[in-house]
Amino acid sequence: MVAGSLVVQAIFWLSDGGALTDFPGDEERFIFLAFQILGHFGGVPAFTVHMPGWPLMIAALLKVFGYESLWIVGIYNRVLLAAMAGATFLILGRFTRRSIAVSVAVLSLTMGYNDRLATFVLTDLPYGAASVFAVAALLPGLASVRAGGWLGLAGLALATKTLLRSTGILSAVCAAGVVLATTPGRAAGRARRALAVLVPVLGAVLVVATYNFGVGEGFRPPRAYTALAALGALGPWFSHTPDTPAVRQFAALVPEVSQQRLLQGAPDVLWVAGYRFIKAGHGDQFALGALAERVLAETLTELRGEYIKGLARASLVGLVYPAHKILLPARWWQFPSQPNEGARFERDVPACGLQGMFGPWFQDAWCVGFQELRAKLEFRPQWLGAAGTPSGERPLAFRMARNVRIVALPLYSGVSTVAALIYLLCQASMRRAALVIASFIVADVTLLLLFTYIADVDRYLTHVQPLCLVVTSLALVHRLDVMLSSRV
């Protein structure tokens, strides 16, 4: 299954000309950290903004294939997608016929993330893949009291997910809860099996915390980034910025912007404020994170009515996705305009976007050095020459995949997923599998709703789409089997 999937992914890779999508901003932070790990910038990398998992993987790939060969990340993504198809086959194969499991695994190769996220140097694809691998290991681990090896593998997959994004720890806690509640045996044995899932995750978090402490940063989870990112994602949806103590303290850092419209402006305003907070000596990134969290808490408290309304609207967008652009008004899913965009900042501004994100410890010289380094990176392998069709006619396999994806839309829509989970939870033989998959989907979607309103729905929902396809396929096959057996 994996070998066939690799062939398909190779065709897709060539159809893109082997090229990565140049995504300035988000990807630059991971690339910088990767090169800092490789020793290309002074200082020791501290993982206070991002967890180290993805930068470490990029650094390892560049170390093996050459420091300019960024295109290797695209090949890694394609291998990951092929492995995800194999994991999908293993999951389905536990509950249905081999031919159906193969069919669904092949169908997974047509999903949108196979061409959208495969060309990004972002964490979205490996983050979603870690969930699929964890589910594939958890299911056999739950079926027996002597399946500690499978549970350990699930724990490693969840530790990887957490090292990619700290939010992965919620999936680990949910998975451990399912293991504790559903595995056979006595309470002490169930607790040991739950710990087999949770301990690798807690160990990974402890390693990162210990490392940051060792380089002089203290215990520094990516706190400032999380709170500021949430403000940048939620703020533009609100009618105004409330007048609260923390908001006033934060607004004083950017007097060029009206306080009433502070959160409705471009997210860059928030990063300038954060940069000035640290540079002026008000505190470090940890103190900035505490202030940003107070701003977020006070804003959501003061505007709780708007926030709840936004959550309901975003939930409906997620339920009807991918038909949301047809069925719902654009103002429900289209990110609002940003009236503060283009605000003029004339003093104490970051020398580059990376300095605004990481803070004043990011040296001015690194801004220039990174741009010089970035200009040398190969987003497409030079040895590929004229092969591939990045802008021409797509191969037949690629066009067929797009057509099949349109037909398969109902299999990964929000409504179908919810209905499938409810159906499977009502079936005794499928309840445990449904609980496992539901725990991952609910954990990821809940965080996306609470902190982003799923603002970039086409990107963020790909974190759970592979599992949505699995659960709807399981429900459909199970229902068909019941109907056929009743006729016999």
In whole angstroms, how far apart are the ends?
32 Å
Strand coverage percent: under 5%
Give me the secondary-structure category.
mainly alpha
Topology, number of strands: 0
The rough form would be described as globular
Instruction: Give me the oligomer status.
Output: single chain
Helical percentage: 55-70%
Average of per-residue pLDDT values: 86
Q: What value does the Rg take, in angstroms?
A: 23 Å
- What is the makeup of the main sheet? none
Give the H and E element order: HHHHHHHHHHHHHHHHHHHHHHH
Number of distinct helices = 23
| Residue windows where pLDDT falls under 50 for at least 5 positions | none
Description:
65% of the residues lie in helices and 0% in strands. It is an all-alpha fold and 488 residues long. The two termini are 32 Å apart.
Which features would summarize this protein structure in a list?
488 residues, 23 helices, 0% strand
Topology:
Blueprint: H1 2-15, H2 26-37, H3 53-65, H4 72-93, H5 98-108, H6 124-142, H7 148-164, H8 168-182, H9 187-214, H10 223-234, H11 245-251, H12 267-279, H13 285-302, H14 304-320, H15 324-327, H16 330-333, H17 353-358, H18 364-376, H19 396-407, H20 414-425, H21 431-452, H22 457-460, H23 465-487
Summarize the structure.
By secondary structure, the protein is an all-alpha fold.
